[in-house]
Write a structure and sequence with these properties.
Layout: H1 3-12, H2 25-29, H3 33-47, H4 62-73
Helix pairs in contact: 1-3
């Protein structure tokens, strides 16, 4: 499991086998906007990056989070 999915599963309080690359955090895992902010903050801290709040609209599933983090980190 990647560090990104580990952080997300920890914050959403779900098991890694419950989340897929495209399962929606809000609809499928009952995440609210506060959890989204928590995820963003945890990712910034873990990877030493800054993620613009406007990117939250893309961070609705693992695939979106990977894209935003990799762009912000320049991977």
């Amino acid at each position: 499991m990647s560090k990104i999915s580990e952080i997300i599963c920890d914050i959403l309080e779900i098991e890694e086998d419950e989340v897929t690359e495209t399962s929606l955090f809000k609809e499928d895992h009952d995440a609210d906007s506060l959890r989204a902010i928590e995820i963003l903050a945890a990712l910034e801290k873990e990877f030493g990056i800054v993620i613009d709040q406007s990117e939250l609209s893309r961070m609705v599933h693992l695939k979106g989070v990977y894209e935003v983090v990799s762009e912000s980190a320049g991977w």
